[in-house]
Write a structure and sequence with these properties.
heterodimer, A: 714 residues, mainly alpha, two-stranded antiparallel sheet, two-stranded antiparallel ribbon, globular, B: 439 residues, alpha/beta, 4-stranded parallel sheet
Chain lengths: 714, 439
C-alpha cells in the first residue's frame, strides 16, 4: 500500500491542473455550447503575463498574479464572449468549434508577436518558496501543495456557488435549457458572460500553476493539457464539476501509478504509458453512456442541419458556362507556363509546395465538405503516407511512386480504423476522437524508429518513371500537377456521384437518410478512407518534394491549421483547397520576405490602409474597414516609433486563426462567397433583374429548377 | 441507382488501377549513383554556374546562415549567427580572403518548422545564390538532405543526423555522431567518483532514447549496475516521481539524462524532493551561463562535458581568448559563453580555412577537397582535434573536458595543467586514458 501511495500521491498536483482546465471547459460548454479548445492558448497568455511582470519587471508575485490571473484571465473571457461566441449561440457545433480552433491556432503567435519570442527561462511559481518540502514522506513541495489547495478551494467555492446562489441556479438552468430560461425572464446572455469570465479565470490560474513545471514558458507546453483536460471533462460527462475534478486527479495519479508498476523498457511501458491519456479519452468517448446524448436529448433539432445551398457554379447560365469552359483551361495553361518558364526555381519550388498542400487539403474537402464531419488529424494521415513511402523506399528499395500509392492505401486503412468510432460518434465527439488520434500519432507513433524516427526523420527520394526523372523541380512540379488533377477528379467524381449524394443526405439527418435506404456505416467509412488516402498520397508527395520528412512536418498543430484554413477558404470546392494550399505557402513566404525588410511595418500599414478603403468603398463594410484602419495606424506607429521590424515569422497562423472567425459568417468559405457575389453582380448586370442566391440560408434563396441542378451535377 | 453506384465504383477503381500500373513502372532518383557526390549537384540545383562558384565575384563572396531564429527552441539555436558574423567581420576587417570580402546575405529563419527548413535551405542556394552556408543550427534539419545533394559547402552545429550525409557537410566538432556507441567518458567519470549504481533517463524519441541506450551499454561494458533505464518518458513530461522512487529503492548513485533543459531540471528537482541530494547528475546540455543563472539551484553539483576548452580555461588557449575578445568587441550584449555561439565561430573559421586552401579561384569542390585533407583541425586551439581525412567518420581519439557546477560557477575538472581534456580510444574496453593531443 505504501508503495502504491508513493507512486500515486505525487500525481495529484498535476491532476489538479488538468482538473482546473477541465472544470473551465465544462463550464463554458454547458453554459454556451462552445467546446473551447482555445483554453491552451488562454493559459499561455496568463503564464506569459505572469512571467513578464515577475521576471522582466520585478513585480512582487501577488500583484503579478492579480494582473495575470484575476484581471487578464476574465478579460479574455469577456472579449471572447462579447466579441465572438455570443453571436454564435444558435450556430451549428462546427462553427463554434472552428472558431475555438481558430483562437487556439491564432492566439499564441499573436502573443509572441506582441511580447517577442525571447526565451522565458525559469518560469516563477506562485509559491514563496516553491521547492520547500512540505510533506517529505511523499516528496511534496510547496508549489505542489499550493496547486492542490487552490484547486480544492476553487472547486468547493464553485460547487457551492452553483448549488446555493441565484447566479448558480441560473447557470444550472441555462445548462438545462437556455430557451426556458429566457422565457422565465432571465438574461441567458449575462449568465453565459459570467460563465466565460469565470472559466477564463480558471484557465489562467491553471496556466500560471503549470508553467513552472517546465524549464521555459512556451506555447507548446500547454498542449499537454489538451487531451488530459478533455479526458477529465469526459469523466464528468462534460457536466459534473466534482466528477471532473475526480477525473483530473485520477488521470494524474493513473499516469504515475502506471509509470511505477510497468517495468521500464517493457512493451507495455513503451506502448501504454505515453498513450495513456489518449486511450482514456477515446474509451470514455466510446463507452461512457450519457456523454454523447445530453444536448441532443434536450433539443431534437440540434443534430439536424439544413442542407447547404447548392454551389455558386450551379447558378451559372449557359453562356457563362461556355465562357468558363474556355477560360478555365486557358488559366491552367497560363499558370503552368508562368510556373515553368517565368518564375525562378525557388518560386517554382514554392508553387509546387502549394500544390502538394492543396492535395492534402483535398482530403478535408472530401470529409468536411461532403459529410460535414470534422477531422482534426489530417496531418497525421499525411504523415502515415509520407513515412510509408519513405521507409519503403529507403529500407526496401521500393519506388516512391509505388510507395505513394501504398502510403495512400495504408493511410486509408488507418482512416478506417479511426472511422470505426465515427460510427458511434459524430460532430464534436468525432472531432475530439480524431484530435486524440492526431496527438497519439504525434507523441507515440511518429517518433518510433520504424515510422518517422523523431526529429531525424526519413528520407524520401524523388521518383523516376521509365526514363523520366523527377529530380528537378520542374519535372516534380509537373508530377504534382498530375497527382493533383487525379485527386481533384476523384473528389469531383465522388461529390457528384452516389456517395456524395448519400453523404449530403446523411449530413442533413442520419435517421431520415436511413429511412430511404442509405447505409450510413458504409458511406461514413468510405468517405473517411478516401479522405485519409488522399491525405496519405499528398503526404508522400510532400515527402518526396522535401526529400526528407520527420514527425515535425505532421505535428497535430498543422492538422488544426489545415482545418481552420480550408474551412475559411471553402471546404466544399476544389478551388477552396487550392486557395488554402497556396495561402499556406505564400503567406509564409511574404512574411519571411517582409521580415528581411527594414520598412516592413510601413508596407504593412500601406497594405492595411488599401484594404480598409476597399472594404469601405467597394464592399460597404464599415466595421471591417475600421479594423483594417486600426491595423494600418498601429503598423504605421510601430514603423515610426518602434525598434525595427518585430518578429513576423509565424504570424501567418494568427492570420489563419483569426480568419476562421469569418467561417461563422460565411460557412461556405471566402472563395465560394466571393464567387457567389461576383456571379450575382455579373448576372444582375446581364439580366437587368435582381438576382439573389444568398448563401446565408438555403431556404431564403431561390430554389433552382430541378433540371438545372441535374444539369450541373452531370 | 444500382447502375450509378456501379459506374461510380468502376470509375474510382479505374483511376486507382491506372495509378498502380504507372507506379509499378518506376524507380527512385539516385538508385544507381551516390547522391552524396557533388557531381549530382546539377540534378537538384539548376541555376548554379558550371564549376560551382556561385556568389563569388572579384570583390566578394556571398554566404548566409540558416536556423531557428524564432519558435519554441530559438534561444538554443538562433545565437549561432552571432558567432559566425563576429568571425567574418573580423576577417573582413583584416582585408578579407584573397582580396575578397565575405558578404553576409542574412540568416534565414526556419521558425523551428521542418517544412520551412527545407524551403529556406533552397532559398539560400537558389534565391540568394550564396557560395556557402555558414552557421546552421536547427533542432530539425531536413534541409540537410537537399544541401548534401547539391554539394554546397555547409557548416553548422552538429546536432543532427544530416551532417553525416555528404563530404560537403561540416560540423564544428566533426560530422559524425555515433550516439549508439559513445566513448567511455561517462563510465570513466562514474569510476573516478566511485559510483557504480547508475540510472539513465530519456524521452521516447529515437535521438534521446538511443543516446541513453548507448550510454547504458557502455556502463554495463565496464561492469556497472544499470538500476533504471527509462528511455520512454513522454516529451513534455511534468512528473517523473515514479522513476525517482525506483531509483531510490535501487540505491542509484549516478543519473545520466539524454533530455532537454525542461527534462534535466525536472530530474534535479525531483531528486531533491525525494531527499536524494547525494545522487550525482550528468546533463548532456546546459553548459552555458544563462542556463546557470536561471537554474543555479537545480544545477548545483551537476557534471557537464565539453568538446572544446572550457571557457573558464580560456587563458590557456589563444583561440578561445581571441574569440571572447572579438565577441565582447562586436556583440557586447551577447554572452559568448554558449556552445552554440562558439560553434558558429568555429564554423566560420572552418569555412575561411577552406576558402584559403581553395586559392585564388574558389569553387565548392576546391573548398571541400581542401578541408577534407586537414588531419588536425582545432579551430586555432579551441577544440579537440578533428581529422577531416577520415572525412566524416569516427575519430581515433575521443577527448572530453569535464566541468562541474560548484557554488554557482562552472569549474573544469580532471585534465592537466597542459590540457583540460581527458582522452580515450573511443571503443576502448578499459577505462585507461591516452595522452591528450597537442592543440
Amino acid at each position: 500500500m505504501d508503495e502504491f501511495l508513493r507512486y500515486a500521491i505525487p500525481g495529484i498536483p498535476v491532476g489538479c491542473v488538468y482538473a482546473l482546465v477541465a472544470v473551465s471547459l465544462v463550464l463554458t460548454y454547458t453554459t454556451s455550447g462552445v467546446f473551447n479548445l482555445a483554453f491552451g492558448a488562454q493559459a499561455y497568455v496568463s503564464a506569459v503575463v505572469f512571467y513578464l511582470t515577475v521576471v522582466d519587471h520585478g513585480w512582487p508575485k501577488l500583484p503579478a498574479f492579480l494582473v495575470a490571473v484575476v484581471v487578464i484571465g476574465p478579460l479574455l473571457g469577456l472579449l471572447l464572449d462579447r466579441g465572438l461566441f455570443r453571436w454564435m449561440r444558435t450556430a451549428p457545433m462546427t462553427v463554434k468549434l472552428v472558431s475555438a480552433l481558430g483562437l487556439l491556432v491564432g492566439v499564441p503567435p499573436l502573443v509572441n508577436f506582441l511580447f517577442g519570442t525571447a526565451t522565458r527561462l525559469g518560469p516563477p511559481s506562485v509559491a514563496p518558496d516553491p521547492e520547500k518540502l512540505v510533506w517529505a514522506r511523499y516528496g511534496i513541495v510547496q508549489h505542489q501543495a499550493i496547486t492542490v489547495a487552490i484547486t480544492v478551494a476553487v472547486v468547493i467555492v464553485l460547487a457551492a456557488m452553483l448549488r446555493f446562489t441565484t447566479l448558480g441556479l441560473r447557470m444550472r438552468a441555462v445548462v438545462e435549457s437556455p430557451r426556458m430560461v429566457q422565457l422565465a425572464g432571465i438574461n441567458a446572455d449575462r449568465v453565459s458572460l459570467f460563465a466565460w469570465m469565470l472559466s477564463s479565470f480558471l484557465v489562467g490560474l491553471a496556466g500560471v500553476l503549470l508553467a513552472p513545471l517546465f524549464a521555459n514558458v512556451a506555447d507548446t507546453n500547454f498542449t499537454v493539457l489538451l487531451v488530459s483536460a478533455i479526458a477529465a471533462g469526459a469523466v464528468g460527462r462534460l457536466r459534473s464539476i466534482p466528477w471532473t475534478l475526480a477525473g483530473g486527479v485520477l488521470l494524474g495519479v493513473g499516469q504515475n501509478v502506471l509509470s511505477g508498476y510497468l517495468p521500464a523498457g517493457s512493451i507495455l511501458s513503451i506502448g501504454l504509458r505515453p498513450a495513456f491519456p489518449f486511450i482514456v479519452l477515446v474509451l470514455l468517448l466510446l463507452f461512457l453512456p450519457g456523454l454523447r446524448t445530453r444536448r441532443e436529448a434536450v433539443d431534437p433539432l440540434s443534430v439536424c442541419d439544413p442542407p447547404p445551398p447548392a454551389l455558386a457554379a450551379t447558378y451559372r447560365d449557359a453562356s457563362l458556362d461556355r465562357m468558363t469552359r474556355i477560360a478555365f483551361p486557358a488559366f491552367i495553361v497560363a499558370f503552368m507556363v508562368v510556373a515553368l518558364f517565368v518564375v525562378s526555381s525557388y518560386w517554382l519550388f514554392l508553387l509546387t509546395q502549394g500544390i502538394v498542400f492543396t492535395i492534402i487539403f483535398l482530403s478535408i474537402t472530401v470529409l468536411t465538405g461532403m459529410s460535414g464531419q470534422l477531422s482534426l488529424c489530417q496531418a497525421a494521415f499525411a504523415g502515415v503516407g509520407a513515412f510509408t513511402a519513405g521507409q519503403l523506399a529507403s529500407q526496401q528499395g521500393v519506388s516512391v511512386l509505388l510507395g505513394m500509392v501504398i502510403g495512400g492505401a495504408v493511410a486509408a486503412l488507418v482512416g478506417v480504423v479511426v472511422a470505426l468510432p465515427a460510427l458511434r460518434l459524430s460532430g464534436l465527439y468525432l472531432a475530439l476522437a480524431t484530435l486524440a488520434f492526431g496527438l497519439l500519432a504525434d507523441n507515440v507513433v511518429f517518433p518510433l524508429s520504424w515510422v518517422g524516427r523523431g526529429n531525424a526523420g526519413v528520407s524520401v527520394p524523388r521518383p523516376t518513371l521509365g526514363s523520366i526523372d523527377f529530380t528537378s523541380t520542374r519535372s516534380f512540379f509537373l508530377l504534382s500537377m498530375a497527382v493533383f488533377a487525379v485527386c481533384a477528379f476523384v473528389v469531383i467524381l465522388v461529390r457528384k456521384g452516389t456517395t456524395g449524394q448519400q453523404l449530403a443526405a446523411l449530413r442533413g439527418s442520419d435517421v431520415a437518410a436511413q429511412t430511404i435506404g442509405i447505409n450510413p456505416v458504409r458511406a461514413k467509412i468510405t468517405v473517411f478512407a478516401l479522405s485519409a488516402a488522399i491525405a496519405g498520397v499528398g503526404g508522400a508527395l510532400y515527402g518526396s518534394l522535401q526529400l526528407r520528412v520527420s514527425g515535425g512536418d505532421f505535428n497535430f498543430f498543422f492538422s488544426l491549421v489545415f482545418v481552420v484554413l480550408v474551412l475559411t477558404t471553402g471546404a466544399r470546392t476544389v478551388e477552396g483547397a487550392v486557395n488554402a494550399g497556396m495561402a499556406f505557402v505564400l503567406f509564409r513566404e511574404v512574411l519571411q520576405t517582409l521580415q528581411r525588410n527594414d520598412n516592413a511595418m510601413l508596407w504593412i500599414a500601406v497594405g492595411a490602409a488599401v484594404l480598409a478603403v476597399n472594404a469601405y468603398v467597394r464592399h460597404h463594410e464599415p466595421r471591417k474597414a475600421l479594423m483594417e484602419a486600426v491595423t494600418a495606424v498601429g503598423a504605421f506607429a510601430w514603423w515610426l516609433l518602434g525598434d525595427g521590424t518585430p518578429s513576423l515569422v509565424g504570424l501567418q497562423y494568427a492570420l489563419f486563426g483569426f480568419g476562421a472567425v469569418s467561417y461563422a459568417k460565411h460557412p461556405e468559405g471566402i472563395v465560394e462567397w466571393r464567387k457567389r457575389e461576383s456571379l450575382q453582380a455579373l448576372m444582375r448586370g446581364r439580366n437587368g433583374a435582381p438576382t439573389d442566391f444568398s448563401a446565408d440560408s438555403a431556404l431564403s434563396g431561390p430554389i433552382p429548377a430541378q433540371s438545372s441542378v441535374r444539369e450541373a451535377l452531370r | 441507382m444500382r447502375r450509378s453506384i456501379d459506374r461510380d465504383r468502376i470509375r474510382v477503381v479505374a483511376v486507382i488501377a491506372a495509378l498502380v500500373v504507372v507506379a509499378a513502372a518506376c524507380g527512385n532518383a539516385g538508385d544507381d549513383d551516390d547522391t552524396a557526390k557533388p557531381s549530382s549537384a546539377t540534378t537538384v540545383v539548376e541555376d548554379t554556374a558550371p564549376g560551382h562558384s556561385p556568389g563569388v565575384t572579384a570583390t566578394e563572396i556571398k554566404v548566409g546562415g540558416l536556423g531557428s531564429a524564432t519558435g519554441p527552441l530559438a534561444p538554443q539555436y538562433g545565437p549561432i549567427e552571432k558567432g559566425v558574423r563576429a568571425y567574418l567581420d573580423m576577417v573582413n576587417d583584416a582585408g578579407g580572403v584573397n582580396g575578397r570580402k565575405v558578404t553576409w546575405v542574412g540568416f534565414r529563419d526556419d521558425a523551428t518548422n521542418p517544412s520551412q527548413n527545407v524551403s529556406q535551405s533552397r532559398a539560400l542556394v537558389e534565391q540568394d545564390k550564396v557560395f556557402a552556408i555558414v552557421g546552421v543550427a536547427a533542432p530539425i534539419f531536413p534541409g540537410g538532405e537537399y544541401l548534401a545533394q547539391t554539394g554546397i559547402p555547409t557548416f553548422g552545429w552538429n546536432v543532427n543526423d544530416e551532417w553525416e550525409l555528404g563530404p560537403n557537410m561540416f560540423g564544428e566538432k566533426g560530422s559524425y555522431l555515433d550516439i549508439l556507441h559513445p566513448g567511455p567518458a561517462l563510465p570513466f567519470l562514474a569510476e573516478q567518483l566511485g559510483l557504480t549504481k547508475v540510472a539513465l533517463l530519456a524521452y521516447g524519441v529515437p535521438q534521446s532514447a538511443d543516446c541513453a541506450k548507448g550510454q547504458a551499454q557502455r556502463f554495463r561494458d565496464f561492469g556497472m549496475d544499470v538500476v533504471l533505464e527509462d528511455t520512454n518518458l513522454p516529451f513534455g513530461a511534468t512528473d517523473i516521481s515514479a522513476d525517482i522512487q525506483k531509483m531510490k529503492d535501487g540505491g542509484v548513485q549516478f543519473v545520466t539524462t539524454c533530455m532537454d533543459p525542461s527534462g534535466n531540471t525536472l530530474v534535479s528537482r525531483s531528486l531533491k524532493r525525494a531527499g536524494m541530494n547525494d545522487v550525482v547528475q550528468y546533463w548532456p546540455n546546459g553548459y552555458d551561463q544563462e542556463t546557470l543563472t536561471q537554474f543555479a539551484a537545480e544545477m548545483d553539483g551537476v557534471w557537464f562535458s565539453s568538446f572544446f576548452i572550457p571557457f573558464e580555461k580560456a587563458s590557456t588557449s589563444k583561440g578561445l581568448t581571441r574569440y571572447l575578445a572579438e565577441m565582447k568587441k562586436r556583440y557586447p550584449d551577447v554572452d559568448p559563453r554558449q556552445e552554440v555561439v562558439l560553434a558558429g565561430w568555429i564554423d566560420a573559421d572552418l569555412f575561411v580555412t577552406g576558402l584559403k586552401a581553395a586559392g585564388e579561384n574558389p569553387t565548392w569542390e576546391k573548398v571541400i577537397a581542401g578541408l577534407n585533407k586537414i588531419t588536425n583541425y582545432t579551430a586555432g586551439g579551441i577544440e579537440r582535434p578533428v581529422d577531416w581525412t577520415l572525412r566524416h567518420g569516427d575519430s581515433p581519439v575521443d577527448c572530453t573536458a569535464f566541468i562541474r557546477v560548484e557554488n554557482g560557477r562552472f569549474v573544469p575538472k580532471f585534465g592537466s595543467s597542459s590540457s583540460p581534456f581527458t582522452c580515450f580510444k573511443p571503443q576502448s574496453t578499459t577505462l585507461s586514458t591516452v595522452a591528450p593531443p597537442h592543440l
